[in-house]
What does this fold into?
Amino acid sequence: MTSPRAAGSTPDDRATIRRDEIAGRLAAVEQRIAAACREVGRDRSELTVVAVTKTYPASDIAVLAELGVRDVGEARHPEAGRKVEECAAAGLDQLSWHFVGAVQTNKAAAVASYASLVHSVDRRRLVRALDRGAERAERVLDCLVQVDLDLANNGAEHRRRSGAAPAAVDDVAEAIATAASLRLRGVMGIAPLDGDPTVAFAELAELAARVRAAYPGAEVLSAGMSADLEAAVAAGATHLRVGRAVLGERPALR
Ligand SMILES: *Cc1c(COP(=O)(O)O)cnc(C)c1O
It folds into this structure.
């Protein structure tokens, strides 16, 4: 385009401001990760940062890709599916899409068609639905067992949002591992809002070790978000799911 550069807030200006904002936030997150790694003697190369882009536009994903972030996390279908299409249309073909939110069984086939790694598999019925979807899409889908780390409320069925109870993890893991079109890659957890993330992630790491012992390919430990990534690095996380710290505060969901 050859339109003259107008003074004030043109779309180009706004894009530049947004790019600078994301670059600055990403750099700050990298500093936090570096410090957390130093603290416990880990190497940054052991960690994958998944930028959780839910509620943010595909244009932000393009910025992230430019900045070298290829692992993108989404939490809802159809929002995720729409962005996968927008990014493909924009020529962004190097992205890995992580599905981190609760998957409704009737949306599993769609998610299975574009996700690289589903972090949130928590029940046998969902395993079957994802397996059918992956088979139909002629792909093998990597999956994590999401563990419910709300330890204080673990027995209380009514309070459970998502995640398999720790006692059910082996069962879900086995279902994934034996599904023809799925591959068990490890476990995922979300620290409870009102608890100590260090305690929750220690429990998660223990479960991860147990799953890894039974299934040697299951070496992923997805833990840690904007508020608690340091605790996750200390607990041995391999994947950090970082949204707000990279992209800014989201409008409240729901
Ligand atoms: C939104 C979300 C994140 C990112 O949370 P932030 O607090 O924005 O870093 C991580 N994991 C899951 C499952 C999410 O839904």
Strands lie at 48-52, 71-74, 96-99, 117-121, 141-147, 182-189, 220-222, 239-242. Residues 52, 54, 75, 100-101, 190, 225-227, 241-245 surround pyridoxal-5'-phosphate (CB under 6 Å). The chain has a mean pLDDT of 94. The radius of gyration is 19 Å.
